[in-house]
Write a structure and sequence with these properties.
The chain has helices at 2-12, 93-99, 130-134, 333-338; strands at residues 29-33, 37-48, 51-57, 70-72, 80-87, 104-111, 114-124, 146-149, 152-155, 160-162, 175-182, 186-197, 199-209, 218-230, 236-245, 277-282, 285-290, 294-296, 300-321, 323-324, 345-346, 349-357, 371-378, 384-392, 400-423, 428-439, 445-452, 459-464, 469-472, 475-482, 486-497. It has 498 residues and is mostly beta strands. The protein folds into three domains: 2-86 and 179-199 and 229-296, no CATH class; 93-162, no CATH class; 309-365 and 400-497, Chondroitinase Ac, Chain A, domain 3. The chain starts with a helix and ends with a strand. The relative contact order is 0.14.
């Protein structure tokens, strides 16, 4: 229900501020979700006569959800919608070919400076309905026409197809039409709101490791971009745009129109202006408002900077997780305990992680939408070099971000089992491992050696050469510092009982 209320509020205009000039009210307004759909609100000039009126609206998006449409007069004029129809089959060459499948038409073929007319029978048009593209599932076997000319089949068109004139029922754009009844004739600007697919946004973050970085911590400068993609089949001129970050529960069969009018009278909130993008908490999500109206054209990708921060303190972490168990992914707990060779394969790679806190005290402290983090470091010649990237999920204020950026070149690990003893009749097992991590750098590195106590839930370390800390019920960490061109060796014995 909470997600339904969110959607209704967006449709009714709750998500749009009222501190705009009056002449801005006719501009389209969009709320774009990072799940490939959006909510649009537009003004539609109407002139109605008393009684029943037929209205066509050709400015609709191509991937509209018809049952989400809300049409109303913002000034309260009573409109009774007797019937609503949605057509999304605008005339195209492929569609016209589909009308004539099984029939013979003329094709114009250039022959030097002259034009020749060939007759061809349309065996298959190649037409794919827009719904097939909207759902991301192209129809198998379609997309290329098949034409018979002089008893021979050919893929593709032999020339320019020549069609008879269009009928009066043909449309050139996706069209909504209504049969409306009113007792209050006159001119006014109606408001239409709807949900449609075909529009998405994402966040991208570029982080530069500053020259001010030290051996103890990195200093990061961040620039965050919003990337919007419009594949809705419609251009929105001078639109007011909001971006909603969060995991909204979106059903395939959304039906909201019949329940939306109860939310129409909600008051809009008012917030302080931000230079480019304003962020605020909204329900269980976060809204990012572009403070300048912008035109979002069909098939356009647009980017806007929404966060800039400097002197963020981060930490580069080296982590060695030496066990390889991917080939045993299907094992159940009993098999893990009873298979002697489980966990004896070694991974030589030392992972490189970057960690920083999203806090005011760390020159950041805003909710960060999920997206891609790219890290750069400046070389001695002043050029920025790419050093890794990864994805982050939606990250609230005051949470810590830790991402894997790659493997260390000059640090390697080695893990081997040195002892294994089982007393099945007495329900216990001892296992001993030796872990070696070598550092070929010219400076010391701090490495966290991670060990998973995977054999059974009841365990204890009976011997350990280096102090460890428990990070969860079956994971230990051994922090070590390795000198330049040095090596650290960690030995431990674990005792399992069941």
């Amino acid at each position: 229900m909470k997600n339904l209320i969110l959607l209704l509020c967006c449709l009714s205009g709750l998500a749009f501020t009222q501190d705009k000039p009056a002449d801005d009210d006719n501009a389209p307004a969009l709320t774009i979700y990072n799940q490939n759909f959006f909510v649009a609100r537009e003004r539609l000039p109407m002139e109605l006569k008393a009684g029943v009126n037929h209205i066509d609206f050709t400015g609709i998006a191509a991937h509209l959800e018809p049952d989400s449409v809300i049409l109303r007069d913002p000034n309260g004029r009573a409109l009774q919608i007797l019937e609503q129809n949605y057509r999304n089959d605008p005339i195209s060459q492929e569609l016209l070919l589909s009308f004539y499948e099984g029939k013979t038409i003329d094709f114009m073929v250039p022959r030097g400076e002259k034009q020749e007319i060939l007759k061809g029978k349309i065996i298959r048009s190649g037409y794919v309905p827009s719904a097939g593209f909207a759902n991301g599932y192209p129809q198998p076997g379609y997309g290329q026409p098949l034409i018979e000319v002089d008893g021979v089949l050919r893929f593709g068109l032999p020339g320019q197809p020549l069609f008879p004139a269009l009928t009066g029922d043909s449309i050139l754009k996706p069209t909504l039409s209504w049969e409306l009844e009113t007792n209050e004739p006159g001119k006014f600007n109606a408001e239409i709101s709807y949900v449609s697919g075909g529009m998405s946004w994402q966040a991208d973050y570029n982080l530069v490791v500053s020259d001010k970085s030290t051996a103890k911590f990195d200093v990061l400068d961040m620039v965050g971009w919003v990337t919007m993609r419009n594949q809705s089949g419609k251009t929105f001129e001078n639109a007011r745009i909001k971006l909603l970050a969060g995991d909204v529960n979106k059903l395939q069969d959304v039906t909201v129109a019949g329940r939306a009018y109860a939310a129409m009278a909600k008051a809009a909130d008012q917030e302080a202006m931000a230079p480019v993008v304003r962020e605020k908490s909204f329900d269980e999500f976060h809204l990012y408002t572009l403070e300048r109206p912008t035109t979002l054209r069909d098939q356009q990708t647009k980017q806007v900077e929404f966060v800039r921060a400097t002197s963020i303190h981060g930490q580069r972490i080296y982590l060695y997780d030496g066990v390889r168990t991917d080939q045993y992914a299907y094992y159940n707990p009993e098999q893990i305990r009873n298979e002697p060779s489980y966990g004896t394969q070694s991974n030589p790679k030392v992972w490189v992680m970057e960690e920083f806190k999203n806090a005011d005290t760390n020159h950041l402290g805003i909710p960060l939408p999920k997206g891609k983090l790219r890290f750069y470091r400046r070389d001695i010649d002043g050029h920025l070099e790419f050093v890794g990237e990864n994805q982050i999920d939606h990250t609230p204020k005051d949470e810590t971000i830790r991402v894997y950026t790659g493997n260390a070149f000059d640090a390697v690990g080695e893990r081997k089992r040195t002892n294994f003893h089982v007393e099945s009749s007495q329900h216990w097992m001892d296992e001993t491992f030796e872990i070696r991590v070598r550092n070929h750098k010219k400076e010391p590195v701090n490495v966290r050696i991670v060990e998973h106590l995977y054999r059974w839930t009841n365990w204890k370390l009976t011997e350990q050469s280096t102090e460890s800390r428990k990070t969860d019920a079956q994971t230990m960490e051994f922090p070590v510092t390795i000198a330049p061109d040095g090596e650290q060796v960690v030995n431990y014995t674990v005792h399992y009982s069941w």
